[in-house]
Amino acid sequence: MATYDLVVIGTGPGGYVCAVRASQLGMKVAVVEKNATLGGTCLNVGCMPSKALLHASEMFEEAGHSFAKMGVSVSSPKLDLPAMMNFKQQGIDGNVKGVEFLMKKNKVDVLKGTGKILGTGKVEVSADGKSQTIETKNIVIATGSDIARLKGIEIDEKRVVSSTGALSLDKVPGKLLIVGAGVIGLELGSVWKRLGAEVVVVEFLDRILPGMDGEIAKQFQRILEKQGFAFKLGAKVTGVDTSGKTLKATVEPAAGGAAETIEADIVLVCIGRVPYTDGLGLKEAGVALDNRGRVQIDPHFATSLKGVYAIGDVVAGPMLAHKAEDEGVAVAEIIAGQAGHVNYDVIPGVVYTTPEVSAVGKTEEELKQAGVAYTVGKFPFTANGRSKVNQTTDGFVKILADAKTDRVLGVHIIGIEAGEMIHEACVLMEFGGSAEDLARTCHAHPTRSEAVKEAALAVGKRAIHM
Ligand code: FAD
Ligand code: NAI
After folding, report:
1. N or C: which end of the chain has fewer CB within 10 A?
2. How many whole angstroms separate alpha carbon 171 and alpha carbon 77?
3. Strand pairing partners for 215?
4. Which positions in this protein are listed as binding FAD (predicted)?
5. Interval 258-292: pLDDT, tens
6. Closest Cα to residue 234, out of 210, 267, 216?
7. 429 appears as a binding residue in the annotation
8. Superfamily of segment(s) 349-459
9. What is the pLDDT of residues 33-80, one digit of tens each?
């Protein structure tokens, strides 16, 4: 008799959510975690600490630059970095405790140690030189991802850092060189820029935020440049000389050509993340990987080994916490004999900068490439009443709809609170709604969300306030 119905390896947003859902469905569940705390990358060194620092640094920036124009006169704010880091840590601790509470509440056993799959139904858990073998009917691999490294550049997490080191710097760097203009580079670049660093971003491609709608990315780049970001696009860092007091990075055009040297106090390498499968014993157990080192799964999250499933960053798809969570719920339901499902066409993405960038569905570039005939409705925040009174008018809403059926295929927003505003588009798209459906839905006034309604009206060329 197996001890458990389900053992989940990893307690990030994929793993712990899967465990809770499985317990709700009546399974006896254990989670295995090698880290000292639960919650995975997201809670410990990812989503949550970065959002705490983004919030705190934004308040610092606002107090210094935006209060006066509203008639709020304060003396120039002073940065207490250790206190800000403490604020971040309190946020991490609170969330980690929350996951511990959820495990208890749902009667999920927490097994501390490194999990290794010995075969169908068998997981070895090792900690402090001791190991035990757990028997279980089903196993879910939710071991997440790790930072991608650049050949020849050693990350010491002090001067040459990954996101983990960049979330815990003990002083504001004079100059921060960021390799990669993706989500991490722009979010953590924003944090340190607001706190006083000079920020230079080197990006391999000729644009920032690959994967996001091109028009949005262009406007975003202009806004970031106004904030003081410097971008070197179409370029790559090929080495960092750490011998002197100041770091010397060698930067070459991506297409080849003469190299230049950029000096910096800190270099942040954020060129993506890779699936994490170390120590899981997958090869020996017979769990196949795909050509990019991700655990290979079928449409029901089943791996090549019977009774073993995988979800989250360790499998294909966007490396996002909410994608991992939804897969955790779906796989638990499938194991319980239900019809668990994730709609990969409606997974929102948000960049939590100021302004925020959010998106769901197809970009204009993707529709063009697929040969889909589409209509575009756009509405700028400069024409939205609430944004005008708050003087937060940067950005716009863009809606892409099928030219024939009017079904909404993609929504892209750049602007303050874009990350909250995207969800009405998600609900609409989940129900296969049209731009007209959105345009005829009453929106409270005065809200920034009225810009979403106006963009939907603009698809039918009948925006009111423009
Ligand atoms: P993880 O969260 O990586 O968790 C995996 C867990 O498995 C870890 O706790 C690990 O210790 C454990 N583990 C691994 N191997 C073993 C083993 N053999 N035995 C036992 N335990 C093991 N996503 C968003 O959606 N929004 C954001 O704002 C956001 N911000 C981010 C900011 C940063 C700086 C970073 C780095 C990432 C961010 N992400 C964000 C991405 C997000 O963190 C991941 O998509 C998410 O954590 C993936 O969840 P997961 O459960 O698949 O894996
Ligand atoms: P990313 O994939 O978002 O961006 C990496 C960038 O680095 C790309 O623009 C890429 O073209 C560039 N690049 C790659 N190699 C390079 C090189 N040699 N030189 C210069 N540039 C190079 O990856 P990032 O920012 O590291 O984030 C990792 C993951 O974490 C992402 O998949 C993201 O989904 C997730 N994340 C999500 C957040 C959110 O949802 N708000 C926040 C932070 C991370």
Report:
1. N
2. 17
3. none
4. 51, 115, 143-145, 313, 319-322
5. 999 999 999 999 999 999 999 999 999 999 999 99
6. 210
7. no
8. FAD/NAD-linked reductase, C-terminal dimerisation domain (3.30.390.30)
9. 999 999 999 999 999 999 999 999 999 999 999 999 999 999 999 999
